[in-house]
Automatic annotation (TrEMBL):
Domain ABC transmembrane type-1 span(s) in chain numbering: 1-213
Compartments it resides in: Cell membrane
Main location as per UniProt: membrane
TM stretches of this protein: 6-26, 38-59, 86-108, 144-161, 192-212
Protein name as catalogued: ABC transmembrane type-1 domain-containing protein
Entry GO terms, CC: plasma membrane
Similarity comment: family membership: Belongs to the binding-protein-dependent transport system permease family.
Pfam families given in the database record: BPD_transp_1
Keywords from the UniProt entry: Cell membrane, Membrane, Transmembrane, Transmembrane helix, Transport
PANTHER family, alphabetized: ABC TRANSPORTER PERMEASE PROTEIN, INNER MEMBRANE ABC TRANSPORTER PERMEASE PROTEIN YCJO
Species of provenance: Paraliobacillus quinghaiensis
Amino acid sequence: MKTFQFVIFSVPLLVIVGLGLALLLNSLPGKIRTFFRTVYFIPYAISVSVISIIFLWILDTNSGLLNNYLMQLGFDPVPWLTKQPFAWISLVLATVWWTIGFNMIIFINALNEVPEDMYEAASIDGASAWQKFYRITLPSIRPIMLFVVITSTIASFNVYGQPYLMTRGGPGDSTEVLLMGIVQQAFEQRELGSASAMAILMALIMIIVSVIQFKVSNATNKGGA
């Protein structure tokens, strides 16, 4: 259930923010676009342990950078990593910041494949920016969006490093995701059979979710056609 919570919280943001950044960067001049594309992609090249250390430094309740600023402004410190819903907010924030560059690059490449003639024809017909996005951009990049949704879902199901390093599964066991349970079963309790069964179940769940997403996307495409 906790893994499902993380998937539900993180995947929409990974898709929507990734697409939003891609649209924003595509509207910038070439050199500026290249600079910001590199800036947003750099975190994806950093290991999860480094990302977790950075966010621990920022979000620590007692000595974190963010709480220091809040206290200087007269606010009480926020228990980002020790109470809910702040722990989930912190984990999702760290994950989005870490991985959003990958989805952004994929969406940028997809947007660059949309023929400019279609936008020019729409402009001549008096279409607004929203109409161009809804009628031209979204249908053109729908297969890529499905790919991003499925890969983001699989990656979120496999979350381990962020909750293990940032919250240790806490507060209580509220952020103890499935992979943490599998590792505990296999290496701490030495119950390899149970760990293997949990891993197989997790793989089946990811396959089922991916198939459902694919079927829903196909049904939407046929309905739109």
